[in-house]
Hints:
Blueprint: E1 3-8, H1 12-23, E2 33-38, H2 41-50, E3 56-59, H3 70-78, E4 84-88, H4 93-101, E5 106-109, H5 114-125, H6 143-152, H7 157-167, H8 172-179, H9 183-197, H10 202-210
Parallel strand pairs: 1-2, 1-3, 3-4, 4-5
Helix pairs in contact: 3-7, 7-9, 8-9
Amino acid sequence: MNIRLLIVDDHPLFRGAMKQALSSADEGRYGRIDVLEAGNFADLQALLLEHGDVDLVLMDLAMPGVSGFSGLLSLRAQYAAIPVMIVSATEDPETIRRALELGASGFIPKSANIETIRLAIDTVLAGDVWKPDDIDLGAQSDAQITDLIERLETLTPQQMRVLSMISQGLLNKQIAWELSVSEATVKAHVSAVLHKLGVDSRTQAVIQLSKLGTDAVPQPGTI
Length: 223
């Protein structure tokens, strides 16, 4: 079979190195390997709209257009059928555990060699989850974090997109423009998001997200 991979990272040199390494892999396992690149979250979304047959997204946590795990949350909500692997220089067990809890199919440290990366990709394409062998994820998550993740899972894809944009500091009118909907529709989504998260304001919603590693602060706005 042929496969299409999408690398999302704001460092062109890293994207180029990854693309070269993956493109030169043993194609006998897959047939042709097509590697796409995106330097920010907006480009990622555009490529996914253009290429509906992406088999795997390899995404950094930190890039323009997202903050912390907000990109992963938004991507999993919009494209639940496409597996996402995090490729990050942040390699602590808590970050890896959180990424997997939020729906990532794997976590690859940027310090990993190319053979490890290829093994990780093989594992995920086979339908399994991959994590570094030398990382202990045995510790249990905080009960409040577990509750928050469960609440996030109740959001619809559109509500998750709205929450992600709130975390980026977008106002209702900006969100409405991005989603091509009315501002009244955005207000309804925001109200639903706040209700499902059990909070009273946009600021409190972002504070909740900060517990997952997102650190954006919203600009002033109303619901």
